[in-house]
Amino acid sequence: MKHSTTEIGIVQTQFATVADELVLESGEKLGPVTLAYETYGELNAGKSNAVLICHALSGDAHVAGYHKGENKPGWWDDMVGHGKAFDTDKYYVICSNVLGGCKGSTGPGSVNPKTGQPYGLHFPLITIGDMVKAQQLLIKQLGIDKLCSVAGGSMGGMQALEWLRSAPDKLESAILIATAAMHSPQQIAFNEVGRQAIMADHYWHDGNYYEGRSPAKGLAVARMVGHITYMSETSMLDKFGRQQKNEKQPFKFTADFEVEGYLQNKGDSFVKRFDANSYLYITKAMDFFDLTEEKPLHEIFKGLDAKLLVIAFRSDWLYPVWQSQQIVKACKIAGLNATYCEIDSTYGHDAFLLEIEQEAHLVSHFLKRVSNGYDVTGEYAI
Predict the structure, then answer these.
(1) Does the domain formed by 187-285 have CATH 3.40.50.1100?
(2) Angle at CA of residue 89, ends 93 and 379, nearest 5°
(3) Contact assessment for residue 339 and residue 379, using Cβ atoms and an 8 Å cutoff
(4) What pLDDT, in 10s, does the model give residues 1-50?
């Protein structure tokens, strides 16, 4: 794992009303719809160098650089910037907070114009398709007709897949990292445990908690469960072992082991930046996502001109390699130009945020070939 010291510097989140009224896949209508987004680099004269980065479940529009007064960079800062994988000297990089989110985009915590109160559970059910539809409106509003690439890991990869399905003529390529064309029963099960933890919290109040205490304990537990799935057995053993905390208290079911303290800290920090209802809605959207619902995956890919880079991590048991291989197999059957790379990492699902050096090499090489029109087909194990 290698981190670059090259920084973008101070960036500012922007906001765009992309629709006065958006018709959702459920048939319900939502509006007005605002998306928070950030951009990096410059759009070229031909408007052909735009790259959209889609974030995962708990991410946001702040993918790189720093916000004024903060010392923590964006969530993929090591991949975006001068000389990095998504080189801002070459590409105009865009990242937006998803519909249903809680970092500036319209979500359950937003004010319902009909009532003047936060939506809560009156917010309609949303899908990955709805998220992408809102993104497409944003891209159009930015004056971009076709993207050089759409990239994302985990839920971000699902959004990239949805772009391929719903707007294949609007992108040159897609980068799919540690993702799936549909959730497995195990993946749905883990999300359901998190949702039940939130809804069992005394302060959830059927989603009407915005004027009082939030369901912090339930959301923290949901995040703790999530973090267990993001790591691998090897990474947890290497990081914590059975090491006990130095400041242990008398036996009271407190955090005696380092791994317990780590999970509790992750849960406690998460509730300070994320909305519990957004967690419910977004995880449900992930669970409902099924690219094969109407027809086989290879039929969806048939006739597409876009080039694909698919990256998987061998220790990822949340989004195991077979799910990425399923996507690649469908590409091959459909005759779609696809490159598949398996990285031998011990970090588990978190590897897509941590294996920077290897990811950067693959992504930058892929984008260079896409931009120059070279063939990018191949299979690699790293």
Answers:
(1) no
(2) 70
(3) yes
(4) 444 444 789 999 999 999 999 999 999 999 999 999 999 999 999 999 99
Cα–Cα dist 258/108, whole Å? 35
Burial 106-142, CB ≥16 within 10 A → b, else e: bbbbbeeeeeeebbbeebbebbbbbbbbbbbbbbeeb
Q: How many CB atoms lie within 10 A of CB 161?
A: 28
User: Which fold would CATH assign to domain 14-183+290-381?
Assistant: Rossmann fold (3.40.50)
Q: Are strands 86-87 and 80-81 parallel, antiparallel or unpaired?
A: parallel
Which residues are identified as catalytic?
Answer: 154, 316, 349
Q: Are 270 and 223 in contact (CB under 8 A)?
A: yes
> What pTM was computed for the model?
0.94
- Please write the tens of the pLDDT for every residue from 89-113: 999 999 999 999 999 999 999 999 9
**Distances from the Cα of 12 to the Cαs of 15, 63, 72, 139, in angstroms?**
10, 11, 14, 18
Three state DSSP letters for the chain? CCCCCCCCCECCCEEEEEECCEECCCCCEECCEEEEEEEECCCCCCCCCEEEEECCCCCCCCCCCECCCCCCCCCCHHHEECCCCEECCCCEEEEECCCCCCCCCCCCCCEECCCCEECHHHCCCCCHHHHHHHHHHHHHHCCCCCECEEEEECHHHHHHHHHHHHCHHHECEEEEECCCCECCHHHHHHHHHHHHHHHCCCCCHHHCCCCCCCCHHHHHHHHHHHHHHHCCHHHHHHHCCCCECCCCCCCCCCCCEHHHHHHHHHHHHHCCCCCHHHHHHHHHHHHHCECCCCCCHHHHHCCCCCEEEEEEECCCCCCCHHHHHHHHHHHHHHCCCEEEEEECCCCHHHHHHHCHHHHHHHHHHHHHHHHHCCCCCEEEEC
Q: How confident is the model at residue 282 (pLDDT cuts 50, 70, 90)?
A: very high
Domain boundaries, the chain: 14-183+290-381, 187-285
CA 176 to centroid of chain Cα atoms: 11
Angle at 335 between CA 329 and CA 336, to 5 degrees: 80
